[in-house]
Design brief:
It contains 24 helices and 17 strands.
Length: 600
């Protein structure tokens, strides 16, 4: 054997570290179990003779029908631990007959004389391209739902089948290119220590399920299966998004200690999560949750949430051929309100991007959706869709503690017009003799620089402000945080951002209205001294972040935070602000809970 061959076949170095996306916090140590899939993108293109086209269409329809039966069988047998996530499988069932997917594939077979596999791939590529352009990462991630539904059809066309995940009979760390919700719900929880996937992000359903079940998960690894083999020993740090392959003894010992500390800390903060978030000098901060699905309400309650500071309502408009009815929306909003009662539920009106969002919403394609027809702009230009949602919210508010919030307000005129349409929706309900709440609280999201500048005027038109830092930072710093070239500029503690937030809070206080924060900045303990000092009335975040935020609040003094803010606002750079936090509260403060910042 030559030296070059020996080097090629040499065992990989120990402590090989792979970086992915932190999907669910926690540390796991165990053996890898690789799950094999057929790749939807790797299919053969064939042309069908004219006489065989009808038979090919029939073959496709049979594959869809078989997929529906398979999925229904999964739904019928979902273990109780996964019952809260059946809604995801219901969405996939609907997707199997989605007009764009189903009819599109059939048209490709009939008009292009293509085999069913390639016809399906063509449609799938088009759908993924549409979702990729959406500005909101949560809805970009919904492309994975279409991929998973298509994968079931493709398996039947190819005669292959999904991996037998339910048959795993030992404690392992699952490593897969991707995991569909249907596959995830078949896992025996007592057999799985963690999930690792090449695809997916924080908002993928695999990540959502992992967080709700409190199983460590790392997503978006890209090529984990090229470096990991079944039975390899792994360390999974779900908080940092790091996988260590074949760790040495020193590394194993260090992470075992961290694992023990994390589990001890997690148990401690969870036990106290239902207690108020009160500072050492008795200031009580409201800590609420951001959710996008009815089923997440259980997680809010379990983690001690003081209410829902942001209920995203876009899910009802995604991956469906028709628009939701008023009754469907009302039923959902009512259920959330009744489960959370007497706590507050803040319903944000439809916030979609300027691209085709669902089969029932045909919108013009835009060069830059983030700066186009989205959020309140879309609502004002689509009065029938907007008023249907407003009527549903007003009806639900009659049965629970509900308030309404308009997204991406950039000028006073938008707010005045939105309130006028809300009044018209109320008048139509009164005319129809349908019960509703007439004095519902109305809020504006402060997400763009123009709203910051006009905050004193906007404050006269609403009952509360909610600062959406995700977009505010992006727009004010002129960066796309999804762009790796400039993502490092996305810094919540940027002095310019802190000064904008201060201006908004001062305008709210002057007008006598409350001001909240619902961006991801609210979910990071490192920011708490600044946020307390700014005088925010409430913070809203991913439900799983609530216990750690409440725990950290109890370590702080409001008066000290106000003094600290004065010094923080004098700093010229992000690095200077971070240095000040560490110098004042200790370098371990922002990492005291073993988490990375929330990405919600």
């Amino acid at each position: 054997m030559s030296d070059s061959t020996a080097r090629h076949e040499a065992k990989p170095a120990r402590n090989l570290t792979l970086q992915g996306i932190a999907g669910s916090p926690g540390i796991a140590i165990g053996q890898a179990y690789l799950v094999e899939h057929e790749d939807v993108d790797v299919v053969e293109k064939r042309f069908i003779e004219a006489k065989n086209v009808r038979a090919e269409v029939k073959r496709f329809k049979q594959a869809v029908k078989k997929a529906q039966k398979q999925l229904q069988s999964v739904i019928d047998e979902v273990p109780k631990e996964f019952r809260d996530h059946i809604y995801i499988l219901d969405v996939h069932m609907m997707l199997l007959k989605d007009k764009m997917l189903y009819n599109g594939a059939i048209q490709n077979i009939e008009h292009e004389s293509l085999n069913a596999e390639w016809a399906l791939k063509m449609v799938l590529d088009e759908v993924k391209s549409i979702f990729k352009k959406m500005p909101d990462p949560y809805f970009r991630e919904r492309a994975s739902d279409v991929v998973h539904a298509s994968k079931m059809i493709l398996d039947n066309l190819l005669g292959t089948g999904p991996p037998d995940i339910s048959g795993i009979d030992k404690r392992v760390i699952i490593v897969a290119h991707d995991l569909s919700p249907a596959e995830t719900t078949q896992i025996q929880l007592e057999k799985v220590k963690a999930f690792l996937t090449d695809r997916g992000g924080q908002t993928s359903h695999t990540g959502i399920i992992a967080r709700s079940l409190e199983i460590p998960a790392i997503l978006g690894l890209g090529n984990a299966k090229q470096h990991i083999k079944t039975n390899d020993l792994l360390i999974v740090d779900g908080s940092a998004g790091i996988v260590i392959v074949d760790p040495d003894e020193e590394t194993l010992t260090r992470y075992q200690e961290r694992k023990d500390l994390f589990e001890e800390y997690q148990a401690r903060i969870t036990r106290s999560s239902h207690l108020p978030a009160e500072t050492t000098d008795k200031f009580r901060l409201s800590v609420m949750a951001n959710i996008g699905l009815l089923e997440e309400v259980v997680s809010v309650i379990d983690h001690g949430g003081d209410g829902i500071g942001l209920y995203r309502t876009e899910f009802h408009y995604v991956n469906r051929p028709t628009l939701p009815s008023e009754q469907e929306l009302f039923d959902n909003y009512r259920d959330v309100a009744e489960i959370m009662a007497p706590h507050m539920v803040t319903v944000r009106t439809l916030d979609i991007g300027g691209d085709k969002f669902a089969s029932g919403l045909q919108l013009a394609e835009e060069m830059n959706p983030a700066l186009g027809l989205r959020a309140i702009r879309f609502g004002l230009q689509s009065p029938e869709i907007f008023k249907t949602q407003l009527r549903a919210i007003l009806r639900a508010a009659n049965l629970g503690n509900v308030r309404i919030m308009f997204p991406m307000i950039s000028q006073v005129e938008e707010l005045v017009e939105a309130k006028q349409m809300l009044e018209e929706a109320a008048e139509s309900l009164a005319k129809d003799r349908i019960p509703f709440k007439s004095d519902i609280k109305v809020g504006a999201m402060i997400e763009v620089p123009s709203a910051v500048v006009m905050a004193d005027i906007l404050a006269k038109e609403v009952d509360f402000f909610s600062i959406g830092t995700n977009d505010l930072i992006q727009y004010s710093m002129a960066i796309d945080r999804g762009n790796k070239q400039v993502a490092h500029l996305y810094q919540p503690l940027q002095p310019a951002v802190l000064r904008m937030i201060k201006r908004v809070v001062e305008a709210a206080k002057e007008a006598g209205i409350q001001v909240y924060m619902c961006g991801e900045m609210a979910g990071d303990p490192m920011n708490l001294p600044v946020l307390l000092g700014l005088g925010l009335d409430a913070l809203s975040m991913n439900p799983i972040s609530i216990p750690r935020l409440k725990s950290t609040v109890r370590m702080l003094s409001l008066n000290d935070s106000r003094l600290f803010l004065q010094e923080a606002l004098k700093q010229p750079t992000v690095a200077d602000v971070i240095k000040l936090v560490e110098g004042t509260y200790g370098p371990s403060f922002p990492k005291n809970d073993f988490y990375q910042p929330s990405q919600d």
